Amino acid sequence: MEKTRVQINQTNIKAVVAVVVADALDKSWVDIGLDDNLSRDLGADSLDMIEIVMALEDKYSITLHDLTWASMGDVTVRDISKAIWTLTAGILTVQADA
Questions:
Q1: 45 counts as catalytic
Q2: pTM of the model as a whole
Q3: pLDDT for residue 26
Q4: Residue 40 has what DSSP assignment?
Q5: Is residue 74 over pLDDT 60?
Q6: Cβ pair 77, 33 in contact under 8 A
Q7: Which residues pair with 93 in a beta bridge?
Q8: 77-88 and 46-60 helices cross at what angle (nearest 10)?
Q9: Most buried residue among 5, 11, 54, 86 by CB atoms closer than 10 A?
């Protein structure tokens, strides 16, 4: 799969996280709020969380530590977006969808 370096902003990341979460939970991305708690508000279970983490790791070519996410009871879309922003510093290599 081809990879491309792109500059992104926090809004881009938040949108992508919302779409990934929506796909994993079989919801519409427009129903996903930044402050929605993945388990409490959106009904994500531990397997959903693993699916979300893996999809984001693949998308952004980063490593999110599964144990960190699994131990966080109150993780929100905003929390995940901030973590990705911190890891990428706004410049990253993304996999181009085939």
A1: yes
A2: 0.78
A3: 96
A4: T
A5: yes
A6: yes
A7: 5
A8: 30
A9: 54
Please work out, in degrees rounded to the nearest 5, the angle formed at the alpha carbon of residue 4 by the alpha carbons of 59 and 69.
20
Contact 73, 30 (CB under 8 A): no
Amino acid making up residue 73:
G
Give me the catalytic one of 23, 31, 45, 58: 45
pLDDT, one tens digit per residue, over 17-66 is 999 999 999 999 999 999 999 989 999 998 898 899 899 989 888 888 75
The 10 Å Cβ neighbour count of residue 88 is 17
Nearest to 43, CA basis, from 27, 20, 63, 55: 27
Q: Which residue has the tokens 């708690």?
A: 37
59 contacts 13 by C-beta, under 8 angstroms: no
Question: Tokens 């919801």 identify what position?
Answer: 27
- In this structure, the number of other CB atoms found within 10 A of the CB of residue 89 comes to 8
Q: Count other C-beta atoms under 10 Å from residue 3's C-beta.
A: 11
